[in-house]
């Protein structure tokens, strides 16, 4: 099941990066200020796919070494 989420996350990242203005922006820019736009889109997609809270959506990628 984890590999399905990893695959979903990789696809979501690729699609999100294809529609944002700055796809090369780091996911969590130094100095704070929040996540990159593509990262927010990916987290939203995970939130919808999992049917869980945003907290779970944010925690899940940190537990996947390949993402």
Distance between the termini: 15 Å
Query: pLDDT below 50 for ≥5 consecutive residues: which ranges?
Result: none
The gyration radius over C-alpha positions equals: 12 Å
Helical proportion?
A: 55-70%
Number of domains: 1
Q: What fraction of residues sit in β-strands? A: under 5%
- Tell me, what's the shape? globular
Could you walk me through the main structural features you see in this protein, from its secondary elements to its overall organization?
With 67 residues, the protein is mainly α. The protein has one domain. It has three helices and no strands. The protein has helices spanning 2-19, 37-50, 54-62. Helix 2 packs across helix 3 (54-62). The chain starts with a helix and ends in a 5-residue tail after the last helix. The mean pLDDT is 86. It comes from Halococcus saccharolyticus DSM 5350. This is Transposase IS4 family protein.
Short description:
This is Transposase IS4 family protein. This protein is mainly alpha-helical.
């Amino acid at each position: 099941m984890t590999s399905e989420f990893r695959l979903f996350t990789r696809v979501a990242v690729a699609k999100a990066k294809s529609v944002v203005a700055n796809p090369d922006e780091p996911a969590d820019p130094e100095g704070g200020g929040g996540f990159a736009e593509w990262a927010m889109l990916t987290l939203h997609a995970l939130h919808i796919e999992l049917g869980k809270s945003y907290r779970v959506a944010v925690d899940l990628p940190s537990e996947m070494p390949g993402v």
